[in-house]
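Notebook entry, structure prediction.
Reason for the run: the old model in the group folder had no record of what sequence produced it. Starting over properly, with the input documented here first.
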Amino acid sequence: MALTKVKKDEVVAEISALLADSKMTVVAKYQGTTVKALQQLRREAKANGTKVKVVKNRLVIKALQANDSYKNSDVAGLNGMLLYAFNGVDEVAPAQILHSFAKANPSIEFVGAFDASGHFMGADDVKALATLPSKNDLIAQVVATLLSPVNDVTNALSGNLHALLDGVDRVLHLAGQPG
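New structure, fully documented this time:
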């Protein structure tokens, strides 16, 4: 069913808004993926703040050209049946959700991604991003690394204190004093 001009303008406006708010927009081929699988992908993506849209490439290109950050973006790779995953909070989340979904649905294949500045990254770069730990995992790793010396010092002091108390207890015991 063909979209009316008004409906097309609404779609372009919606995509423009999503692009403006998104830190990363991942583009993937979905040909051969069932409607049921795409519905499952949308549910999983929504759970982590990612919005998945299937939109005509021509309308996405119009939305890109309407946005100052994206108007000079490379759109040569926007061919075929594509889906677009947007996330305004986490740069890596759209790539990770599509990557994990593609494990069970190999018909999903990365084409690339647009970052917030309008730079288009290739499929290999998106795959590398998808295998990174999540933002919360990275923060936890940094905190653990920063706390490691503190824990080491605390453990060393604690160990020496126990050794000192054990030594005092032995001396008192040998001297016949109750410990």
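Summary: The chain has a mean pLDDT of 85.
The old model has been moved to the deprecated folder.
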